[in-house]
Amino acid sequence: MSSKATILIVEDDPSVRNLMATTLKAHDYSFLTAGNGETAIMQAATHNPDVIFLDLGLPDMDGINVIRKVRTWSELPIIVISARSDETDKIEALDAGADDYLTKPFSVEELLARLRVSLRRLSLLKNRTDPSPVFRNGEIVIDFAAETATLSGQELHLTPIEYKLLTLLARNEGKVLTYTYITKEIWGSSSGSEMASLRVFMAALRKKLEPSANSPQYIQTHVGIGYRMLKVDAERS
C-alpha cells in the first residue's frame, strides 16, 4: 500500500489511462480508474481520492458535469487533462471548480509537477486548523489576523483591494483563478469595468511583489484565463 496520495484517473482512452496509471505506479502513488463520468462520480464518492485527473470528453457525460457533481460535496483537487485547448473550455472547467488544466498531449514530468502542486495545496488546507493562520511563500509572509503582509521582512504598503487580491491568491496557492472568479470575490460582479480594474490593481500588486516584471516569481498570468500564485521555495527567493 502506497504511503502517498490516491489519484482517481478518469479517462476513456485506454492508452492514455494506462500511461497515467503506469506513471503514478512508478512514483509510488495509489490510483483508481474510471472510463466514464458515472463511474467517476461513484468512485469519487466511495473512495474519496486525494486528487482527480479528469478528461472532459467522456462517453456518457461531459467532464464539466463531473466537476459540478463532485463540487457539491468535496473540494478535492481536480486536474483537467483534455485535448480541448480553447480558452473558453479552460475557463468553463475552472469556473465549474477545476483546480488546474493540462492540455493533451502532455509530458509525464509536467503531469507529476501539476500533481505535486495540487497535493501541496491539499496539505495546506488539511493542516489549516487556525482560523487566522500565517501564510508563508518564499519571502512573502501574510498575517491574516493582523491583516499585514511583508516581503523580505519589510512591510508591504498595500491598498485594501491589493491586500484582498494577495490574500485571495494566497488562500488558493497553486490554483488557477479565472478573471470572473476573482472579480466576483473582490467586487461582487464581473462586468467590463471590474475586469479593467482587476488588470490595474494586479499590475500595481505585482510591482510591489516581483523583483522583475519580465520574470514574475510569485504571480503567474494565464493569458485570457486568469492568475495563479506559484509556490516559491524560500531558498530560491
TrEMBL record:
DNA-binding region: 132-231
Modification 4-aspartylphosphate occurs at: 55
SUPFAM superfamilies linked: CheY-like
Locations listed in the record: Cytoplasm
Keyword Transcription regulation among UniProt keywords: yes
Gene Ontology biological process terms, A to Z: positive regulation of DNA-templated transcription
GO cellular component: cytosol; protein-DNA complex
Domain (OmpR/PhoB-type) ranges: 132-231
Gene Ontology MF terms: cis-regulatory region sequence-specific DNA binding; identical protein binding; phosphorelay response regulator activity
Chief location category: cytoplasm
Residue ranges of every copy of the Response regulatory domain listed in the record: 6-119
The keyword rRNA-binding is assigned to this record: no
Domain of life (superkingdom): Bacteria
Keywords: Cytoplasm, DNA-binding, Phosphoprotein, Transcription, Transcription regulation, Two-component regulatory system
Function description: May play the central regulatory role in sporulation. It may be an element of the effector pathway responsible for the activation of sporulation genes in response to nutritional stress. Spo0A may act in concert with spo0H (a sigma factor) to control the expression of some genes that are critical to the sporulation process.
PANTHER family given in the database record: KDP OPERON TRANSCRIPTIONAL REGULATORY PROTEIN KDPE (PTHR48111:SF50), REGULATOR OF RPOS (PTHR48111)
Protein name per Swiss-Prot or TrEMBL: Stage 0 sporulation protein A homolog
